């Protein structure tokens, strides 16, 4: 970062009256309007709208006594009307009450009421079903009318219940059920569930809104005007320029967000906003946790906005990109509204979504500092990754316009490589959303077919075809030495032990939710599923299909972007990410890492397929035989780990290496892409 | 830098682009020339001849496909930062920050290009005086006329007092008085010992200003030398005629070259 550039960037932005007006003044002015609307919605949802309703009663119907006894005079005011329906239509009344002929008995109820109401007991004694039927006319298109309707039915029902209870008491008939409703949630928890999601969304909204004008102008706008060219021929390198702009955007974004939060605080302090007096944010630690989340979200937002800016050649184009990003980010930040979603799930690895779930937990005073740390790390790492990508983009020759220097196969491969990770992100989202919304796909068979065949084989295959890549190179299927095969066979139990040991270790930090384990066993349904199906759907199919997708397509797409060790880590992380819950992510990512190493060491996916199928089948076999790898002495797991590392090391030594990487030992593949595109 | 080394040395520079419509496009092909210290060197050619691409490679905005170039002894590929520190670069695509004043602009570019902090104010004042910007020194760039903006842009280019000044079609869009003022500035830079490399398609400008000229066409240098050397070689007096003669030598019809690049 260059402080001179940062200072002048800020100076330029502060002199931009458009930025100041749109990012700071306008939200300050609009906030009361927003709060007023939110309050109205809140009151509507909680039924807290304070009002007196006017109901019309047509004279001479005999309704008088009922409504006077049943309705709360502080809430309902009677208006005697002649043409009540007309008045209701015109909005002069909230409700119209009148008695209706009882269709069951054909009796005139007005008459019955006059006769029967004072002698209610007689009604029951004689067993005549003739009873007053009160007709309530309301308008569903008007909120007040609707509310009055709900209230009047509630009070009439309560009145009726009271009468029935009195009668039963008089007759000493001890029937019925007594209800004692009791809300066991604390005020703090109720406030957290109500305000947590809103706070998360508000934070994201303000950060995105506050930094947007500055960020979009910072690269896209300057690129359009030509001022970026001027900077690029200065002695500053492009990474320094990018980081200076990043800090300028982050500072602006945080400042604007803080102004808005202070503004919100002002309304809360003076009681304009119905904020709980004791939101119970868990005291100082809760406040610090919220502030930390806010800070890392600000860093991530700045990187995200700058990245959008770097991808756009003009301010207008940046605005086009910004809009969907804004909507998606806002939706992600509202994740706290999704029932039963906890921060100990994969959502903690998704920016904005994790805090969306964690903030209500912090407000409720039940949060894990470990998860907070993880979310902070995720935001910072993703911000860093976005900035690396932004800098990479800025370093491209065609960034300032003009032509790209690459051509032919190299360019097509680069696009394939760039689009692989976004495709896998989409697949992961589909894995989340689709099976849970289609009952047929949520079974073991359905998941096997959809996840494995559609998501892991068909979609990656289409990506390969779309970019015209050679499938034989993308998914290399080559025979390997016998000693490698033997080593792979030994890796199966060793890997199982090491992964189980890792699960134990992880379990002491973040215990696996019992519900998730139960759901998994329910899905497997060991008693009703034939063993061959279990072996096929859990052992064989994932072993083949997942290797095709991860160690095949994904690994090949990224093999020019990372060194082998880093590549194995990235592929493993993506692989782990597809296993939703934390207690499964790390062990699967761990095994995925070793399988990626096997592919990179041998230049073939077969060893990884062998180990994967073997590993899963071993787990199925153990389950069917009522065995598990739990509860063994600690050194057994350690032996598993050491054995796995040693054998993998040997395979790396023996293998021919993956073509196109530094591990490749064989003659250069003549069909491989030239290192230098020109 | 070794004492006998020229401030600008260009050796077999090539640049190939992939044009979506036309495929592989050799914008600059094997271009070599050198500019000596204190010299005004002109790169003369028609639109699309490869002048801008060559200068952009020298300014490190583009990477050469092959060949190399050195500015004050620094390779454009191996030491891009040092190259940018040594040059002042101006082109039609380099604009100024609209919300900074003239003085702030000059101070800013002097500062980020490593000019000694204690001398920055004095340097900015000197440039403001030299370019006749006193009246507008504290006005924001966005409020200046095109001519004034161009003056500030040129002042910005030399704000950090670089040894080499590279100007890509600097007189484009200027009125005659500003063009004359610009010519005066070029002479002043030369007198101050700067090496100036500029591109133009205006033959008269090249004739008037340049100590030496390289004529570039379709990415290749057709001829390079002083005006007298070119006249001698072609037996033509005016640069326009020399240019047509050079095209003829290449077996090209000047009329047919229109729109060929």
Written account of the structure:
The complex is a heterodimer of chains A (678) and B (261). In chain A, 68% of the residues lie in helices and 3% in strands. Chain A has a four-stranded mixed β-sheet with strand order 2-1-3-4. Chain A has helices spanning 3-14, 17-46, 64-70, 84-90, 109-116, 120-126, 143-170, 187-225, 227-232, 238-269, 283-311, 315-333, 353-364, 369-394, 408-437, 444-466, 471-474, 482-509, 514-524, 531-558, 564-577, 582-602, 606-624, 634-654, and strands at residues 53-57, 76-80, 95-99, 134-137. Chain A folds into three domains: 1-40 and 189-398, no CATH class; 53-170, D-Maltodextrin-Binding Protein, domain 2, CATH 3.40.190; 409-678, no CATH class. Chain A is mainly α and 678 residues long. Chain A is built from 24 helices and four strands. In chain A, strand 1, helix 3 (64-70) and strand 2 form a beta-alpha-beta unit. In chain A, helix 1 (3-14) crosses helix 10 (238-269), helix 8 runs antiparallel to helix 13 and helix 10 packs across helix 11. The model of chain A is unreliable at 106-130 and 668-678 (pLDDT under 50). With 261 residues, chain B is α/β, with parallel strands linked by helices. Chain B has a single domain, classed as Rossmann fold (3-Layer(aba) Sandwich), CATH 3.40.50. In chain B, helix 3 packs across helix 4, helix 3 (102-112) packs parallel to helix 5 and helix 8 (227-234) crosses helix 9 (239-249). The model of chain B has no long low-confidence stretch (mean pLDDT 85). The A-B interface holds A 2, 4-5, 8, 11-12, 15-16, 225-227, 229-237, 397, 400-408, 411, 678 and B 15-19, 23-25, 59-63, 65-66, 80-81, 84-85, 87, 89, 91, 93-100, 104, 108-109, 111-114, 140, 156.
């Amino acid at each position: 970062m260059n402080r001179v550039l940062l200072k002048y960037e800020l100076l330029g932005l502060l002199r931009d009256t458009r930025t100041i007006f749109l990012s700071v003044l306008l939200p300050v002015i609009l906030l009361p309007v927003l709060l007023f609307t939110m309050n109205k919605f809140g009151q509507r949802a909680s039924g807290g709208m304070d009002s007196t309703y006017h109901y019309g009663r047509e004279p001479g119907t005999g309704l008088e006594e009922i409504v006077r006894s049943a309705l709360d005079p502080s809430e309902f005011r009677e208006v005697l009307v002649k043409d009540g329906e007309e008045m209701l239509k015109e909005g002069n009344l909230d409700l119209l009450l009148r008695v209706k002929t009882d269709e069951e008995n054909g009796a005139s109820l007005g008459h019955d009421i006059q006769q029967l109401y004072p002698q209610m007991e007689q009604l029951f004694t004689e067993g005549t079903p003739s009873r007053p039927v009160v007709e309530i006319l309301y308008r569903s298109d008007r909120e007040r009318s609707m509310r009055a309707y709900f209230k009047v039915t509630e009070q009439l029902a309560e009145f009726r219940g009271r009468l029935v209870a009195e009668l039963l008491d008089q007759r000493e008939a001890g029937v019925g059920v007594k209800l004692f409703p009791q809300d066991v949630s604390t005020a703090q928890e109720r406030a957290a569930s109500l305000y947590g999601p809103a706070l998360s969304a508000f934070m994201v909204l303000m950060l995105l809104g506050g930094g947007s004008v500055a960020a979009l102008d910072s690269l896209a706008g300057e690129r359009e005007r030509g001022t970026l060219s001027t900077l690029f021929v200065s002695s500053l390198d492009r990474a320094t320029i990018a980081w200076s702009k990043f800090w300028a955007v982050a500072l602006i974004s945080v400042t604007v967000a803080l102004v808005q939060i202070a503004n919100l605080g002002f309304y809360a302090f003076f009681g304009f906003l119905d904020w709980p007096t004791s939101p119970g944010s868990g005291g100082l630690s809760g406040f610090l946790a919220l502030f930390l989340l806010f800070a890392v979200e600000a860093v991530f937002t700045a990187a995200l906005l700058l990245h959008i800016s770097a991808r756009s050649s003009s301010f207008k184009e940046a605005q086009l990109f910004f809009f969907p990003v804004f909507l998606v980010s806002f939706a992600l930040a509202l994740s706290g509204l999704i029932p039963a979603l906890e921060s100990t799930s994969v959502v903690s690895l998704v920016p904005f979504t994790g805090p969306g779930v964690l903030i209500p937990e912090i407000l409720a005073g039940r949060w894990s500092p470990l998860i907070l740390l993880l979310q902070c790390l995720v935001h910072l790492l993703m911000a860093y990754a976005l900035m690396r990508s932004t800098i990479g983009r800025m370093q491209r020759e065609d960034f300032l316009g003009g032509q790209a220097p690459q051509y032919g196969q190299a360019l097509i491969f680069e696009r394939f490589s760039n689009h692989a990770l976004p495709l896998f992100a989409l697949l992961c989202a589909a894995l989340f959303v689709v099976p849970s919304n289609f009952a047929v796909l949520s079974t073991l068979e359905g998941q096997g077919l959809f996840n494995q065949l559609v998501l892991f084989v068909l979609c990656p295959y289409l990506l390969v075809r779309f970019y015209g890549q050679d499938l034989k190179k993308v998914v290399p299927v080559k025979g390997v030495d016998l000693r490698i095969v033997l080593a792979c066979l030994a890796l199966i139990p060793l890997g199982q032990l090491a992964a189980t040991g890792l699960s134990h270790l992880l379990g002491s930090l973040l215990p696996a939710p019992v519900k998730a384990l139960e759901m998994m066993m329910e899905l497997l349904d060991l008693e009703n599923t034939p063993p061959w199906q279990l072996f096929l759907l859990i052992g064989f199919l994932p072993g083949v299909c997942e290797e095709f997708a991860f160690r095949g397509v994904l690994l090949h797409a990224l093999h020019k972007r990372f060194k082998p060790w880093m590549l194995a880590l990235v592929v493993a992380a993506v692989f782990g990410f597809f296993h939703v819950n934390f207690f499964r992510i790390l062990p699967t990512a761990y095994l995925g890492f070793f399988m990626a190493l096997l592919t990179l060491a041998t230049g073939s996916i077969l060893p990884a397929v062998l180990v994967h199928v073997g590993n899963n089948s071993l787990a199925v076999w153990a389950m069917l035989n009522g065995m598990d790898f739990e509860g063994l002495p600690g050194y057994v797991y350690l032996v598993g780990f050491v054995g796995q590392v040693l054998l993998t090391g040997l395979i790396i030594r023996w293998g021919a290496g993956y073509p196109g990487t530094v591990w490749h030992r064989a003659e250069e593949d003549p069909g491989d892409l030239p290192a230098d595109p020109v | 830098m070794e004492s006998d080394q020229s401030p600008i040395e260009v050796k077999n520079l090539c640049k190939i682009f992939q044009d979506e419509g036309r495929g592989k496009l050799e914008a600059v092909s094997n271009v070599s020339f050198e500019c000596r210290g204190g010299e005004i060197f002109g790169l003369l050619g028609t639109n699309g001849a490869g002048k801008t691409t060559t200068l952009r490679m020298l300014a490190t905005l583009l990477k050469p496909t092959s060949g190399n170039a050195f500015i004050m002894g620094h390779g454009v590929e191996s030491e891009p930062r040092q190259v940018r520190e040594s040059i002042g670069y101006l082109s039609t695509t380099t604009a100024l920050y609209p919300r900074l004043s003239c003085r702030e602009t000059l101070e800013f570019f002097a500062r980020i290009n490593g000019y000694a902090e204690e001398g920055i104010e004095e340097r900015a004042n000197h440039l403001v005086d030299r370019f006749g910007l006193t009246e507008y020194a504290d006005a924001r760039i966005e409020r200046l006329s095109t001519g004034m903006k161009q003056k500030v842009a040129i002042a910005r280019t030399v704000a950090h007092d670089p040894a080499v000044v590279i100007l890509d079609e600097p007189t484009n869009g200027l009125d005659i008085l500003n063009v004359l003022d610009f010519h005066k500035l070029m002479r002043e830079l030369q007198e101050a010992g700067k090496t100036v490399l500029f591109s133009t398609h205006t033959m008269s400008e090249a004739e008037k200003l340049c100590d030496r000229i390289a004529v570039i066409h379709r990415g290749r240098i057709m001829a390079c030398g002083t005006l007298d050397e070119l006249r001698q070689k072609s037996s033509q007096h005016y640069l326009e005629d020399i240019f047509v003669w050079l095209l003829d030598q290449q077996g090209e019809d000047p009329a047919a070259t229109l729109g060929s690049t």
